[in-house]
Design goal:
- It is a single chain.
- With about 375 residues, the protein is α/β, with parallel strands linked by helices.
- The protein is built from eleven helices and ten strands.
- Helix 10 links the parallel strand 9 and strand 10.
- Helix 3 crosses helix 5, helix 4 runs parallel beside helix 5 and helix 7 packs across helix 8.
- The N and C termini lie far apart (about 60 Å).
- About 0% of the residues have low confidence.
- GO terms for molecular function: 3-deoxy-7-phosphoheptulonate synthase activity.
Amino acid sequence: MSSPFFTTKLKLASAAGLQAEGTRVTQLLPLVPAGLLQSEVPLSGSSLDTVLQSRQDVSAVLAKLDDRLLVIVGPCSIHDPVAAMEYARRLKELSERLSGEICVVMRAYLEKPRTSVGWKGLINDPYLDESFAINDGLKISRKLLVDINSIGLPVATELLDTLSPQYFADTIAFGAVGARTTESQLHRELVSGVSFPVGFKNGTDGGLTVAMDAMKSSASPHRFLGATKTGLTGIVHTSGNSDTAVILRGGSKGPNYDADSVEQALGSLRFRGQRDVVIVDCSHGNSSKDYRNQPIVAGVIAEQVARGQRNIVGVMLESNIYEGRQDVPATGAGGLLPGVSITDGCIGWDATVQVLERLAEAVQLRRTVMPTATLTPEDSDNGC
């Protein structure tokens, strides 16, 4: 039982706290606990099989135990689950046809980092009307990820904040940490505890040091403040995650997908005794922020792979059903064209097919240049 003295001190502290905090918080609404949402939208048996097998496959590619090329491809961001599923079905069919050479994972980005302001993604504003129905956004997003996995297509997403992975981590085959957050200690701690492979993008200036530091940090155990599935705070203990890689995405100083830049990156990784493989992002700084340049970048990567470059293990592409981008009209989301991005421009489906076919052909040519005893798709059940 508390003493009158303690009660008096508590009241005084509460009164002081009201004056010292919350002066800019206008509202605090309840958030659905991650465990409850996972119970409401559970993984099906087929979805779970896809997640577990694809994680093994991606890990094998990053470790060069599987000589296929990892291809992470999909919309810049997802705002329309119906169009996203149509894209997923097309990609699943294409991935099966090319499964001997490339390991396809669908890009399913539900949150968007903004340089200043703008739409923050399906989770934050699912109805595109600034209603910010985040609880609805979480449920819509989780159902979409489960549905994509259920057709046998694995998904990749960006780890933008440290809370949302509680809601989706069981659906993810590959995670990416963006250029703006690679240097963040919170994200390095997060990666140290997730159960899937992760790529760290180079800094916005194109520098590789922050990504290499992030890999080293994430491979180590950490202790940090976190949240449980029931929404309570807790102290998280992690064992570390060494299943990581650098993503070359270019920067303010120029692109870094050419052969010299790739070799320079690999040399830096070897000098530090780190995993000497890279994934190349064909968009962002490498495309000079013009989606139409992505096939050109992918072509340069394909040439390097075809000549025997074994340490390029993956490629990232921004692709949609239709090319380009669109703004949300004043009339609202109902006026949007289906299958067209509302964030960065994307290549269309026909161009996507051509790029993936070219990458698959490059892997075939690489095998003639430097045949290796690798884990075959049959050995890995060809999960992706």
